[in-house]
Specification:
It contains 4 helices and 8 strands; from the N terminus they run αββββββααββα. It is of the alpha+beta class and 200 residues long. It has one domain.
Length: 200
Amino acid sequence: MSQDTSTFILGAVIFVVLIPVIYVVARVITMIGDAGSAHLLAPLAPAIGGTVDRNQPCIRGRYQGRDVRVSFTPGQSVGSGDSATAINAFYVEVLDLPGRQDWRIKFHLSGLLGQGPKQLTIEVQDKALGERLEQSEVLSAVAAVSTPTQPYVTVAYEARQKTLTYTDDMTPRQIPSRAQFTAQLELVARLAEVNDRVNP
């Protein structure tokens, strides 16, 4: 057997042995991270009568008669290109929420060259839906609760998925206090009610 063949066989054996080991180590690290995330979320579960799903990790429960899922992603990338940055994103989703059209509420930079304060704007395809959303005073409701740290989408309704997602930046924390969480839940309930009314 030539030296090249021996080297190839040894390399192949090492590769075959290392791949499962690397996979197992990665899975263990992921499981430890998921367990830590589930532990952080657990104190919020009673507010939605929820249970912690350790596989996701997230909390699933109900609030004001609606199915809700709560999760978080530290260091979530927002923005694009040179303006991309990261936030400690905390999500509250309302599931199975019917509606005809997508809509979003987003923080954007105002003023000359984006030097002004961050402001909220409604993004929709249908102008009439945008007007109905504006008249419902959702912008002031979101501004009262959401943190304008960076330009990011703070509310997104996706008609195909029937999901309304509220995102808030918890930086430097990872999850909100119980008082903050209560305010976020109240906001999400109001946004879901507005969607029912203006986007049937």
